[in-house]
Design goal:
Blueprint (H helix, E strand, L loop, with lengths): L14 E10 L5 E9 L5 E8 L3 H4 L23 H5 L4 E6 L17 H16 L3 E7 L4 H12 L4 E5 L7 H6 E2 L2 E2 L1 H11 L8 H6 L1 H12 L2 H4 L2 H8 L6 H8 L6 H4 L13 E6 L7 H10 L4 E6 L12 H13 L11 E5 L4 E5 L8 E7 L5 E2 L9 E6 L6 E5 L7 E15 L5 E9 L5 E10 L31 E14 L4 E7 L9 H5 L10 E6 L7 E8 L16
Parallel strand pairs: 3-4, 3-5, 5-6, 6-9, 9-10, 10-11
Antiparallel strand pairs: 1-2, 2-4, 7-8, 11-12, 13-14, 13-23, 15-22, 16-21, 17-20, 17-22, 17-23, 18-19, 18-21
């Protein structure tokens, strides 16, 4: 890739391949890696990719297809094409975490333990000392490969110059395990039952806690009616040492944001000035998007942030190849690739099908506008009328109800791009409520499409005031405060961000439920569901009146200057 005044590394090298290379780490253990590097003399910068996935599959040279593919078996091919990088003067090293595919030690779970992250620092030290490496090292890859990058960067190992870490959660509790404090068991049980049988692991939580504490925690979990209502989870807790159960039970036994989860979250305060590239796509609201938004907001070093259309990347991965090359050329080779002169924020606007550039996130000039929940299912900027009252739905094991509030049709093209939040004043006949909120696009012909979701366990409604913003509430999730039946509480819910151009005639709708059992229409939607539900019947009430101003806070970045027309905005003749 080149411009009139810059270019990336040229394609000029042949490739030397070394497989099953043993890499020493602490404690006399070894990890195993495959090394792809330019052949011949000279020293080169190196890219490191490491995960629990089969490294041999990562380098299979296949024509990419959509994710998850026709058979759903290519999801882990996430490092990029070694041919692309090596031929342009980079070493390309694919390694396996401890306990996976020939590496010594024990696997540290879906959200890896700190020892697994420290191992990667040892790999970086080894890599920098290799005779073909010039000492400049970066990390690359998406999903699991991105998750570990962010945590390694926080340890600042010598030799690591930058990371290209798109599509990777940064807080396993909030992004993957317990969205809004609600257990998201669908993805984690699928992943661990599919992959963990190939790994070496043990019951590390029992080893850490001791038999007595572990047994006491199991008994407490076995008394949880939500967990017992899911047969698979009940079986795991009754047989915590069978199959992949130790890894799943480890997550079930830590339902609050405690030291277990804090140790596995990115400590942004330690990352220093390391350059980092973050991003995802709008459709990845159920797993990675929130983690990259958080990483960009909290990263102190030079940074970029890109959010693409709501389509997951093809597998084997090859998208963003030239973008990453421009990034690596700049930070590892000192080349002018023009990338750092471009605005740091690049987001794709659905509907316009165009990219929008900005200097900051949220986008400067955003007008965060409240759309109030009104009687009759209206969603409008208009203030409340007298005695508007409430909306009640029934939630039970047999049928999960809900409520939908929709805007009038737009009369002017309106761009919505940024963080989204919902404030609900609610009550329930139960001592707990699970809020599942979702934002929908309604086309002029009435067709509906899911855009994004938000979650909150009512008993974990306590906010962290120091970290919360009006457009992005942040919950501590450190305790559960049961609800008093029929008492009204205030709930602040974060929806994952989105970017869309609403054209004249189109509408937005907010749907509020206490379950996420809607049938997904695509893989990314499937990742965003699979949550626990309440086993008991209840009536859930949304209060929306002058005293209880429930509303959706939308980030308006263009249009809607007049406001929506409840009348529809159409002119009628006498």
């Amino acid at each position: 890739m080149l411009s009139t005044n810059w270019q990336t590394s040229t394609r000029q090298f042949d490739i030397k391949i070394e497989r099953n290379v043993k890499v020493p780490i602490g404690g006399g253990l070894n990890l195993v890696a495959d090394v792809f590097r330019p052949s011949g003399a000279g020293k080169f910068p190196a890219l490191l990719m490491i995960s629990p996935y089969d490294r041999a599959e990562q380098s299979m040279e296949m024509v990419p297809e959509f994710f998850p593919g026709r058979r759903g078996d290519r999801g882990s091919l996430e490092v990029g094409d070694f041919n692309f990088y090596v031929r342009r003067g980079y070493g390309f090293v694919i390694a396996n975490l401890r306990g996976t595919y020939g590496s010594d030690g024990y696997f540290g779970n879906l959200v890896p333990d700190q020892q697994s992250i420290c191992d990667i620092c040892d790999v970086i030290g080894w890599l920098g000392a290799e005779p073909w490496c010039d000492g400049n090292i970066a990390m690359n890859g998406v999903s699991y490969f991105s998750v570990v990058q962010k945590r390694v960067a926080a340890l600042r190992p010598p030799g690591l110059k930058t990371i290209f870490a798109m599509y990777g959660w940064s807080d396993g509790y909030r992004d993957a395990y317990y969205r809004g404090g609600i257990l998201s068991h669908g993805f984690l049980t699928y992943w661990l039952q599919a992959y963990a049988p190939k790994y070496r692991f043990r019951n590390q939580l029992k080893d850490q806690w001791g038999e007595a504490r572990y047994k006491e925690s199991l008994e407490l979990a076995l008394s949880d009616p939500e967990l017992m209502a899911v047969p698979m989870l009940a079986n795991i807790l009754r047989n915590p040492d069978a199959g992949a159960n130790p890894l799943i039970a480890e997550i079930l036994l830590n339902p609050l944001y405690n030291e277990y989860h804090k140790d596995r979250a990115v400590d942004f305060s330690r990352a220093g000035n390391l350059p980092a590239y973050f991003g995802a796509d709008w459709g990845n609201f159920g797993l990675h998007l929130a983690g990259d938004v958080r990483a960009y907001a909290n990263w102190a070093g030079p940074k970029k942030f890109t959010v693409g259309p709501p389509i997951y990347l093809d597998r084997p991965l090859y998208q963003y190849a030239y973008e990453s090359l421009r990034w690596f050329d700049h930070w590892l080779k000192g080349m002018d690739t023009g990338l750092m002169t471009e605005p740091p924020v690049q987001v794709f606007i659905v509907g316009a099908n165009e990219w929008k550039s900005a200097e900051e996130w949220p986008i400067p000039g955003t007008r965060f506008t409240p759309f109030y929940l009104h009687a009759g299912g209206l969603l409008s900027e208009h203030e409340f009328w007298p005695n508007e009252g409430t909306t009640t739905y029934e939630d039970s094991w047999f049928a999960h109800g809900g409520a939908t509030f929709a805007t009038p049709a737009m009369v002017e093209n309106t761009e919505v791009c940024g963080p989204i939040a919902v404030k609900l004043f609610g009550s329930t006949t139960d001592t707990e409520v699970l809020w599942f909120t979702s934002l929908w696009h309604i086309a002029a012909n009435g067709t509906e499409k899911l855009l994004t979701r938000g979650w909150l366990r009512g008993s974990q409604r306590a906010l962290d005031p120091a970290r919360s913003k009006p457009w992005q509430p942040y919950h501590s999730h450190e305790r559960r405060d049961p609800l008093v039946p029929n008492e009204v509480y205030e709930f602040d819910i974060e929806l994952r961000p989105y970017g869309i151009l609403l054209k004249a005639g189109e509408r937005l709708a907010l749907r509020v439920r206490s379950a996420d059992d809607e049938k997904p229409t695509m893989f990314l939607e499937r990742i965003g569901v699979g949550s626990i539900t309440r086993p008991s019947a209840s009536h859930v009430t949304i209060h929306h009146n002058a005293a209880h101003p429930s509303h959706l806070l939308l980030p308006i970045t263009r249009g809607n200057r007049i406001g929506t027309y409840i009348s529809g905005g159409k002119q009628f003749s006498d």
